[in-house]
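Friendly challenge for the regulars: who can give me the structure tokens for this chain first? No prize, just bragging rights.
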Amino acid sequence: MAAPYASGAVPGRTPTTLSVGEDELHLWMLRQPWTSLSSEPLMTAELDEHERDKADSFMRAHDRLLYTAAHIALRRLLSAYSGIPPARLRFAREPCAECSEPHGRPVLAPGMPRLHFSLSHSSGLVAFGIARSPVGIDVEKLPTEETVELCIADLHPREQAELAELTGEERLAAFARLWTRKEAYLKGIGTGLSRDLALDYLGGGVGGRPSASPPGWTVLNLPPGSSHVTHSVAAAVEGSRDYCTTVRWLRADTLYAPDPAGVITNDEPRVCATLPASASARSLSAVGAAAPAPRSATSRRDEVIHAD
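First reply, four minutes later:
Bragging rights claimed.
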């Protein structure tokens, strides 16, 4: 089945206009700007065959649209950091940390710049992480009580005990913060949800206790913006030092502009906080601001916690 979007021209060259330092973590957020096809063509010519085939495999147009937009935006972000045109970026997989098979963390292929990234999308919201060290990011819609009951028995015993202290909406929000922290970390180490969820403790943040990070990693919750209070976002980056963490929103124009570098780099951040990674989730949440306005109605919301 052919992709249902028109393909735009691939830019010939892209200047290097963004940079990330060794002690920096750059996070970008993109709100799906519409729920039906736009009159403007998405730049699907920048995707490779695997990405186009994966997009075509989605049964629902909404999911196909979100996947396509997320991967175009990822390529355009990496292009702005690397100076390599989006269509010329090549990807590979690192060996899995559990079995050494080549299905671990996605990376830029050998010969590409040393730049680590992570991508997550859920119910109309996309999050990207860019760093010089391995990074994982996760975004999820807040779960139902049924989802919490289904998943809680698989968590670390201390995490289960902490969630047992809570009830109602407070419990759902705490579970979402914990789950995104855990999945961001598992994506960062390259195992995903194939690793036993009870092995690593990423709890805390309940009753005034600080949130935990596994040895050698920094894990933090992030503000989804006031337009996405029904989502939870977290990032994990390898290293125990304080990372200067910056959160920005991507404009919808990023998906259409023939020269994406200027759109990305000249866009003033809608959410921007430069904080040490050891800052509390409460401090980070205080900077949450509204996302850019959508092109039309907001997307339908799913009820499932899932892996990207």
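Residues 85 and 274 are 28 Å apart (CA to CA). The two ends are 23 Å apart (CA to CA). Your move, everyone else.
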